[in-house]
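queue> pop job 88
queue> type: inverse folding (structure -> sequence)
queue> payload:
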């Protein structure tokens, strides 16, 4: 088959119109096309065309991955899932594996940074941080290590959250019940919720009860 037209269509993509091929044209990125050396009038067989298209898909996936990584860090599985929106799963996995090999993706370091940020800025308890790491595609070993390295205890995080969002919801039993429910939904366990509310209430100068019922 013969290339009868090369036309830039968007960004760094070219429409390659082929004579004697169905469909009539394919899309190839500029870098792959330049690397191939093919021009209008060049001949290529179906095997070479398939290799060209596969290489182009890999190059596009790699460029997209680097674009994503320029904005923030990603876990390997998280980035792989994102890339499958525009590339075959095998291509996405290969691109992510290569970026991991060269150090642009590091699940262990990413898990540590994310765990610290979730604790420091969002006051998440440890079990919720674990869930968030799993959701990002971090493996159980890396996630457990990251959480184990955290310095602050859940009680301190619960108290920080109360001061930040619920400081005016401790005045009576009904208000404390609502605060307890909110903390439980946030991921804190029963004992931490009870201790945090008691400590916050005492700190606010409220009259203590022997048993809050939590």
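queue> result:
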């Amino acid at each position: 088959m013969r290339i009868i037209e090369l036309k830039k269509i968007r960004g760094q993509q070219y429409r390659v119109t082929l004579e004697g091929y169905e469909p009539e044209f394919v899309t190839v990125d500029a870098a792959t096309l330049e690397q191939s050396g093919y021009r209008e009038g060049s001949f290529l067989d179906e095997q070479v065309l398939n290799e060209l298209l596969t290489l182009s898909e890999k190059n596009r996936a790699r460029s997209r991955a680097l674009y994503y990584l320029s904005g923030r860090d990603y876990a390997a599985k998280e980035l792989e899932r994102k890339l499958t929106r525009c590339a075959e799963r095998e291509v996405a996995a290969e691109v992510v594996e290569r970026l991991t090999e060269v150090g642009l993706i590091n699940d262990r370091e990413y898990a540590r940074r994310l765990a610290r940020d979730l604790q420091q800025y969002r006051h998440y308890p440890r079990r919720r941080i674990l869930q968030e790491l799993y959701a990002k595609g971090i493996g159980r070993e890396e996630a457990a290590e990251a959480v184990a390295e955290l310095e602050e205890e859940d009680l301190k995080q619960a108290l920080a959250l109360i001061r930040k969002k619920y400081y005016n919801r401790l005045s009576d039993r009904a208000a404390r019940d609502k605060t307890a429910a909110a903390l439980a939904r946030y991921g804190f366990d029963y004992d931490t919720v009870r201790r945090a509310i008691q400590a916050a209430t005492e700190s606010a100068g409220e009259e203590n009860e022997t048993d809050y019922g939590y």
